[in-house]
Amino acid sequence: MLADLKGWARALKRDVLALYIAARDPRTPWLARGVALAVAAYALSPIDLIPDFIPVLGLLDDLILLPVGIWTVLRLIPPDLMAEYRDKAAQFSKKPRSTAGLVIVIVIWGAALLAAGWWFFARPAT
């Protein structure tokens, strides 16, 4: 069972890199490129939307959101193109980083903090 989990994790990492490649290839359908870009940017971001140190919730984004996003994109990309992207992803020696994903996560956290501050401090006293 442990070997199956490790294999699944390796396939997930390879597919994230394949989506990174697919998002930049003009042969990929435009909807698939957009979704692939969003999934790859989030997956390759150095920080998570929900930090991993938060019990249970911190791992849910990695265990649920990423596989669902990858599955969605896989349904939008033709199988022959996806096979080519997976072959290219297997040749990557170093995982790329996503600055766009980092910025998006920081903006979401900033908006959430502003909304919480507004709710806490700007609402009328009762």
Automatic annotation (TrEMBL):
The chain crosses the membrane at residues 30-47, 53-77, 98-121. Its main location: membrane. GO terms for cellular component: endomembrane system. Residues 33-67 form the DUF1232 domain. The keyword Transmembrane helix applies. It comes from the Bacteria. It is found in: Endomembrane system. It is a multi-pass membrane protein. It holds the Pfam family DUF1232. Keywords: Membrane, Transmembrane, Transmembrane helix. This is DUF1232 domain-containing protein. It comes from Qipengyuania soli. The lineage of its organism: Bacteria, Pseudomonadati, Pseudomonadota, Alphaproteobacteria, Sphingomonadales.
